[in-house]
Amino acid sequence: MPTDLALALGVFALLGKGANPAVRIFLLTLAVADDLFSLIVLAIFYGDQLDLAHSASTLGAAALGAVLAIVPKFPVQRVVAVLSPLCTFFVIPVYVIAKLSQGISMDSITSKTAISLTIARVIGKIVGITLFAWLAVTLKIIQLPNNLRISEIAGVGALAGMGLTVALVISEVAVESEVIQGDVKAGLIISAVISGLIGFIWLKKPLAR
């Protein structure tokens, strides 16, 4: 599971038991598709700069998770119930702060790069994902489930702005300047926080009715 997906699911978990399960499924599907296409682009344009050993270790962890799910009598659900809140609300946030805070200064936070990136990710994710879904439904390319609305897809689009993992990898291989990398990290953190708040408020409103 990418770091950003864990963050998005953490925000979704804060919605409580009344949250629409279809929204969670759409969020998971979108995250997988988003990262998949991003990695394809990354491999095409920056394939010679990728660390194969690091990629292999990530795939190994994913494979281990898949194997544990089919091991007989392994208490997967019990382990997930214990570790999921700990990872979502403590381990992941601490890791993100420790990983992204390196190289960030006050100048990075107020830089044009950080501000532009924040605006582009927060607004772009919502508009892009919502518009694409609306067009696909309007043109009858896809059909939404009866319990999933376009307005909820917009909320998922907001949560998608919390993406950090692939964006960080692309910035590390595409940007040589450490100063600009710090600006990018600042923009990613700010956009993730704002996107998380917007997504939570957006998806919480229908539950309050």
TrEMBL record:
<keyword id="KW-1133">Transmembrane helix</keyword>
<dbReference type="GO" id="GO:0006885">
    <property type="term" value="P:regulation of pH"/>
</dbReference>
<dbReference type="GO" id="GO:0015385">
    <property type="term" value="F:sodium:proton antiporter activity"/>
</dbReference>
<feature type="transmembrane region" description="Helical">
    <location>
        <begin position="186"/>
        <end position="203"/>
    </location>
</feature>
<protein>
    <submittedName>
        <fullName>Unannotated protein</fullName>
    </submittedName>
</protein>
<feature type="transmembrane region" description="Helical">
    <location>
        <begin position="153"/>
        <end position="174"/>
    </location>
</feature>
<feature type="transmembrane region" description="Helical">
    <location>
        <begin position="52"/>
        <end position="72"/>
    </location>
</feature>
<keyword id="KW-1003">Cell membrane</keyword>
<feature type="transmembrane region" description="Helical">
    <location>
        <begin position="118"/>
        <end position="141"/>
    </location>
</feature>
<dbReference type="InterPro" id="IPR004670">
    <property type="entry name" value="NhaA"/>
</dbReference>
<feature type="transmembrane region" description="Helical">
    <location>
        <begin position="79"/>
        <end position="98"/>
    </location>
</feature>
<dbReference type="GO" id="GO:0005886">
    <property type="term" value="C:plasma membrane"/>
</dbReference>
<keyword id="KW-0472">Membrane</keyword>
<keyword id="KW-0812">Transmembrane</keyword>
<dbReference type="InterPro" id="IPR023171">
    <property type="entry name" value="Na/H_antiporter_dom_sf"/>
</dbReference>
<dbReference type="Pfam" id="PF06965">
    <property type="entry name" value="Na_H_antiport_1"/>
</dbReference>
